[in-house]
Amino acid sequence: MSTTQTAPFSLRSIAVPAFGPALLFSIGEGAILPVVALSARGLGASVAVAALVVTLIGLGSWFFNLPASLITLKFGERWAIVGAAAASAVALAAAALAPLLPNGLWLLAAAMLVVGMAASVFSLARQKYLTEAVPVILRARALSTLGGVNRIGIFIGPFIGAAVMQFAGITGAYWVGVVAMAAAAALSVTIPDLVAKPAPDDGVPVPQATLRSVAVSHAGVFLSVGMGVLLLSALRASRQVVIPLWAEHLGMDATQASLIYGLSGAIDMLVFYPAGKLMDRKGRQWVAIPSTLIMGTAMLLIPLSTGFVGLLLAALLIGFGNGISSGLNMTLGADFSPDNGRGQFLGIWRFMADAGATGGPVLLSAVTAVASLGAGVAATGVLGFAAALVFAITIPRLKHRRNY
After folding, report:
1. In whole angstroms, what is the distance from residue 367 CA to residue 325 CA?
2. 3-state SS assignment for residue 325
3. CB-side exposure of 233: number of CA atoms within 13 Å?
4. What's the pLDDT at 6?
5. 3-class SS at 223?
6. Which of these, 27, 148, 162, lies nearest to 85 by C-alpha position?
7. 205 in helix, strand or coil?
8. Neighbour tally for 58: CB within 10 Å
9. 14-188 and 211-394 share one CATH topology?
10. How far is residue 134 CA from its own chain's centroid?
11. What is the spatial distance between Cα 148 and Cα 291, in angstroms, rounded to a whole number?
12. Can you tell me the distance from the alpha carbon of 62 to that of 357, in angstroms, rounded to the nearest whole number?
């Protein structure tokens, strides 16, 4: 009697269709992010309104996480990814044409909202796809790589946009985004379909999960591990604001601040895969706790820095801590998501993470307004220690071979 052996799964087998669209999508995002506020100002917006237009990207992503789960459920992961990338391409084309229209500012604002909504669908669908396509033994590596690919795209996107803007003006950045998003949509068509799971042997149909039923049945997870994810997201978002603000506080010019921020981002990109490998082999706590402690400590060190070198060292430490946490939120979401209702679970999970990303800078702003910038930075650093404590208590002390 012969036996059939299944070839071992390799991430390389799905690397291009799984990670290629994510890289292209993030390049498109990275290309436009530095110029959205400038575009709004050019269309007559005040500084406050220009900042709001930029914020619409994040707000669109945050509030569309729950509908994104329903869209992914209805159309499937592949076509949700394709549709989201195509919608972003159309929105960025509209943004590029906004200066030619009388109500261009409104069109730009609507386009940024659509980009945020599409990013929500794109991110949720690709996370769900990798969660189901990749064996648990490789899950953290796959999702850490996904997070790392996003960072790489966001990092190089502005440079591509800047190169094109030398010839096409500020709208060139949007056309870079259009091309990148359209390429992401085209490449996403090649994503292999997931193999359907067999029906239960007893023949009893499994009731379809809903957002409400998943929220109720997994409330304990959302209120425990989910709070750690919320705190981690708040810490991550705050670091993006803290570094340039403290650089300005120390009297540095824009070039010095950009250099520090860029070097921190470079460190961020270098360590995502080893961290994913460590999570797969040793368990999620081996990355969750150190990364949040490192970022929290670095935040507390920033108010103590008095010059370029001190801020640079603290920023590099933040970059390292954030880099090793690449994919951590997605991995934990995948670990705790149920087979029935995974899309709805991930929608709620991402909603909580984006709530933290929005709340972190708000906390920084509030404490700074009441006390000082140094106190505000220190308050965000405390978030790292709080997240580490939550993760230490709530993440099961289990290795990768169990699907939590």
Report:
1. 26
2. coil
3. 22
4. 46
5. coil
6. 27
7. coil
8. 17
9. yes
10. 20
11. 15
12. 9
| Angstrom distance (rounded) from CA 367 to CA 365 | 6
- Domain coordinates in residue numbering, the chain: 14-188, 211-394
CATH of domain 14-188: 1.20.1250.20
**What CATH topology corresponds to 211-394?**
Growth Hormone; Chain: A; (1.20.1250)
What is the end-to-end Cα distance of the chain in Å, rounded? 36
Q: Is the pLDDT of residue 397 over 80?
A: no
Where residue 306 falls (left for φ over 0; alpha for ψ -120 to 50; beta otherwise) is alpha
Residue with tokens 């010059």: 307
Contacts 24+ apart (CB under 8 A), 52-58: 52/109, 53/105, 53/108, 53/109, 53/112, 54/112, 56/109, 56/112, 56/113, 56/116, 57/33, 57/112, 57/113, 57/115, 57/116, 57/119, 58/116, 58/354, 58/357, 58/358
pLDDT in tens, 221-250: 999 999 999 999 999 988 888 888 888 889
Rounded-to-integer distance, Cα 285 and Cα 293, Å = 12
Label residue 175 by pLDDT band (50, 70, 90). very high
Task: Please say whether the beta carbons of 218 and 336 come within 8 A.
Answer: yes
* Rounded alpha-carbon distances, angstroms, from residue 378 to 273, 297, 357, 375: 30, 9, 17, 5
CA distances from 268 to 45, 154, 158, 295, 356 (A): 34, 12, 17, 12, 20
Output DSSP code: residue 390: H
CA 252 from chain centre, in angstroms, equals 29
Tell me how far apart the alpha carbons of residues 302 and 309 are, in angstroms, rounded to a whole number: 11
- Average pLDDT, integer, range 351-369: 90
204 — pLDDT class (breaks 50, 70, 90): low
Tens digits of per-residue pLDDT, 27-80?
A: 999 999 888 988 898 999 887 888 888 889 999 999 999 999 999 999 999 999
Tokens of 276: 């994913």
Q: Could you tell me the pLDDT band of residue 195, with boundaries at 50, 70 and 90?
A: low
Rounded Cα–Cα distance for residues 285 and 281 (Å): 11
Task: Write down the residue that tokens 């670095």 correspond to.
Answer: 298
